[in-house]
């Protein structure tokens, strides 16, 4: 079947501002939006810029705005979206070219919450054991693939690019609620700042945008509660 | 660039903001008109009489709608913040807000409209 795409193109070397361009390519209804982009890039216009790597919803490279909502292009079936399929870069990031955005500020915030196991006390001789109940507390937030779909769907982030954003909070949640980690206080202190969890206005766009189905607003709420009560339980 | 097509949560948040700003605007005007009493009863009474015009009656119904929505959705926002596990049901909670809103708003709006019509004819 013929599938019509409208892609927001922008080349900072040539264009003053972004503009829409139309492409029609032959695809199967069971193809993904990413297959469409590959076909356009391969057969029509090799100059289109976008990221993709695994193409199977695991690496999180191809998050973009598809028909107004953040999605992974490799997970969206052609038959499940209305035509023309309008594709734009994620909002709130600087556009390098077309759908390629500068992810560095995003990863800087990710690093700011220290996304690794912190040990304060003596290193144990054996492995650190954890009960299934304790593991369950942060199971949901281990699924994050850092695609950026949640952060760039968030009105608080659009309004304040310094807001740490849902993705970094999800990553912090993964360690704050891990019984083996000893860096909770430090992370909670970072998230208690003006640009931390309190900028969340429970808009729920992040939950809809997350390709891994993470209950992002719930995770942020749990961090807010940990800060309010002064304890993680 | 096009608008972000958020779901129920985004529209609930936007309505919450707009109704909040509307109520704030009323409060500012209300503080100013009440302050007029400092210049004497006569000026105060003359300004307050303007509020009896039907257009302000309609505005009052709008004010009631804004306060009511802001209060009901505010409870939803507080519930989500204090009981994160409930956030999974935020859409159902918004549907409950809408149902409660109309259950309270319609009878009150009918009574208020009655008052406006009485004021026009009486």
Provide structural commentary.
The complex is a heterodimer of chains A (233) and B (122). Chain A is of the alpha+beta class. Chain A folds into two domains: 2-101, Beta-grasp domain (Ubiquitin-like (UB roll)), CATH 3.10.20; 104-229, Fumarate Reductase Iron-sulfur Protein, Chain B, domain 2 (Orthogonal Bundle). Chain A has helices at residues 33-44, 104-112, 132-136, 155-159, 165-176, 184-191, 205-209, 216-229, and strands at 2-9, 19-26, 63-66, 69-72, 85-88, 95-97, 100-101. In chain A, the strands form two sheets. Chain A has a five-stranded mixed beta sheet, with helices on one face. A two-stranded antiparallel ribbon of chain A has the order 6-7. Chain A is elongated. The model of chain A has no long low-confidence stretch (mean pLDDT 96). Chain B has 122 residues and is mainly alpha-helical. Chain B has a single domain, classed as Fumarate reductase/succinate dehydrogenase, transmembrane subunit (3 helical TM bundles of succinate and fumarate reductases). Helices cover 81% and strands 0% of the residues of chain B. Chain B contains four helices and no strands. Chain B has helices at 8-35, 41-50, 54-82, 90-121. The relative contact order of chain B is 0.12. The model of chain B has no long low-confidence stretch (mean pLDDT 93). At the A-B interface, helix 7 and helix 8 of A face helix 1 and helix 3 of B.
């Amino acid at each position: 079947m013929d599938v019509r795409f409208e892609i927001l193109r922008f080349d900072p070397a040539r264009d003053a501002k972004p503009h829409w361009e139309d492409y029609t390519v032959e695809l199967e209804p069971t193809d993904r939006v990413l297959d469409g982009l590959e076909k356009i890039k391969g057969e029509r216009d090799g100059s289109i810029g976008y990221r993709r790597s695994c193409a199977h919803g695991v690496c999180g490279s191809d998050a973009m705005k598809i028909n107004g909502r953040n999605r992974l292009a490799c997970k969206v079936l052609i038959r499940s979206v209305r035509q023309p399929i309008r594709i734009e870069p994620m909002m709130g990031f600087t556009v390098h070219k077309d759908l390629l955005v500068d992810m560095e500020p995003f990863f800087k915030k990710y690093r700011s919450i220290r996304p690794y196991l912190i040990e304060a006390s003596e290193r144990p001789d054996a492995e650190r054991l954890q009960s299934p109940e304790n593991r369950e507390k942060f199971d949901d937030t281990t699924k994050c693939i850092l695609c950026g779909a949640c952060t760039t769907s968030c009105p608080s982030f659009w309004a304040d690019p310094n807001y740490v954003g849902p993705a970094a909070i999800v990553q912090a949640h993964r360690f704050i609620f891990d019984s083996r980690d000893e860096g909770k206080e430090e992370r909670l202190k970072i998230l208690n700042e003006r640009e931390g969890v309190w900028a969340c206005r429970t808009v729920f766009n992040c939950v809809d945008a997350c390709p891994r189905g993470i209950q992002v607003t719930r995770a942020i709420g749990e961090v807010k509660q940990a800060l309010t009560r002064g304890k993680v339980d | 660039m096009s608008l972000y097509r958020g779901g129920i949560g985004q529209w609930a948040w936007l309505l919450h903001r707009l109704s909040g700003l509307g109520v704030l605007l009323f409060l500012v005007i209300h503080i100013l008109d009440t302050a007029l009493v400092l210049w004497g009863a006569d000026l105060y009474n003359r300004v307050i009489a303007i509020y009896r015009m039907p257009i302000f009656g309609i505005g009052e119904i709008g004010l009631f709608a804004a306060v009511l929505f802001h209060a009901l959705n505010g409870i939803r926002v507080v519930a989500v913040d204090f009981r994160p596990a409930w956030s999974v049901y935020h859409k159902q909670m918004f549907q409950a807000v809408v149902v409660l809103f109309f259950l309270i708003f319609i009878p009150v709006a009918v009574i208020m409209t009655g008052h406006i019509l009485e004021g026009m004819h009486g």
